Amino acid sequence: MRGVPSPERPPGFALIRLLLGGICNTDLELQRGYYGFAGIPGHEFVGEVVEADDLNLVGRRVVGEINLACGGCDWCARELGRHCPNRTVLGIVKHPGAFQEFFTLPERNLHILPDEVSNEQAVFVEPLAAATEILDQGAIPAGETIAVQGDGKLGLLIAQVLLANGYAVEHFGRHARKLAISGQAGARTHTNGDVPERAFGWVVEATGSSAGMETALRMVRPRGTVFLKSTVHDRAAIDWAGVIVNEISLIGSRCGRFEPAIQLLREGRVDVLSMISARFPLSAAPEAFARAAEHGNMKVLLH
After folding, report:
1. Model's pTM, two decimal places?
2. pLDDT tens for each residue of 6-28
C-alpha cells in the first residue's frame, strides 16, 4: 500500500470514490507479471461519482466499462470500443485502476445502478457482462444443452446466465462446494474428472488453464462450437488437424455489455452473493490479495 495524490479529472471524465472492489483472477495474474503490468490494479468496482461534467452523475452509484476507447477509429464507429487499437484498460493497460480511494473513468463508460441492486451484487457486473457476451456472439438454439467447463467465478456466472436464459447446462469442475451454486440454479454438475467425448454441440471453456482448451475440444461434436473464456498466456497443445477435420468453430470471448448483466441482477435471476469468500478494507489489500490467491477461495472484496 502507498499514498498517491488524488487524480486530476480530465474533461469528459468522472472522479469516482471507491465503494467496493472485487479481486479478479486477472488481478492475480497481473501481480505475477501478466502484461508486464506496473501500477494500480482493479477493474471490478462499485463507486460513487464525486465530480463530473454531467451533473446528473454526481452522487450516484455507478459501475463502469473498463475499456477506454479513443472514440475516433473504425472500431469505435462500429460501437466496438473494447476492440479499439488505441484503447487503455482500467487497472490493466495504461490507466490506473480502481483499487484506490479515488480514480477516474470517462463518463460515457459509466452505468448508474438501480436501487434494487446492492453494492455486493453490483461488484459482479463486469464479470457477469463477460458471461452474457456468449449470448451475443453465438446463435445458440433455444433449449440447447451447453457444457460449461470450469467451476471458478466466471464458470459459475456463465452457467447461471445460460440457465437464466432457458438453456440446459452440464457443468464440469473439480469442487463440489463450488458447483453447488450452479447446481442450485438447475445445472447438472460433474466432479469426477471424466468428460464425455464428442458429446456437445456447444462447449464453454472457462477453466483458467491452457489444458482446458484441449479438454473442450475433446468434448465438442464435429461442427460444434467452443467459446474460449480463459485468458491464460501459456501455450496450449492443440490438435489443429482435429479442429479442421471436425470443422469446429472456436470463438474467443472477453468483455460484454453491462446492460443485460445489470438487468439479471435487478431481477434476481443470478446468485452472486454465494460466491463471496471474504471482505477486507482497502487498507488491507495485500492480505486480501493473499486470501484471493489461496486455493478454493472465490470472490474477495475490498471496501
Report:
1. 0.93
2. 999 999 999 999 999 999 989 99
Which position has the grid cell 501478466?
34
Q: How far is residue 233's CA from residue 284's CA, in Å, rounded to a whole number?
A: 29
With cut-offs at 50, 70 and 90, classify the pLDDT of residue 230. confident
CA distances from 136 to 131, 251, 261 (A): 10, 12, 12
Question: For residue 176, with 0-12 CB atoms within 10 Å meaning exposed, 13-18 middle and 19 or more buried, which class applies?
Answer: exposed
CATH superfamily for domain 127-252? NAD(P)-binding Rossmann-like Domain (3.40.50.720)
Rounded CA gap, 127 and 13, in Å? Answer: 23
Residues of the chain above pLDDT 90, percent:
84
| 153 vs 209: CA distance, rounded Å | 14
pLDDT tier, 281 (very low <50, low <70, confident <90, very high otherwise): very high
Q: How far apart are CA 12 and CA 168, in angstroms?
A: 43
Which residues share a beta bridge with 110? 64
Q: Tell me, what's the pLDDT at 188?
A: 97
Phi then psi for residue 261, to 5 deg, are -65, -45
Q: Is the pLDDT of residue 236 over 80?
A: no
Say if residues 144 and 168 touch (Cβ distance below 8 Å): yes
Distance, CA of 43 to CA of 93 (rounded, Å): 11
Domains of the chain: which residue ranges? 13-124+272-302, 127-252
- Architecture of the domain made up of 13-124+272-302: Alpha-Beta Complex (3.90)
**In sequence order, what are the beta bridge partners of 22?**
44, 301
CB within 8 Å of 151: residues ≥ 6 apart: 171, 172, 173, 174, 175, 178, 179, 182
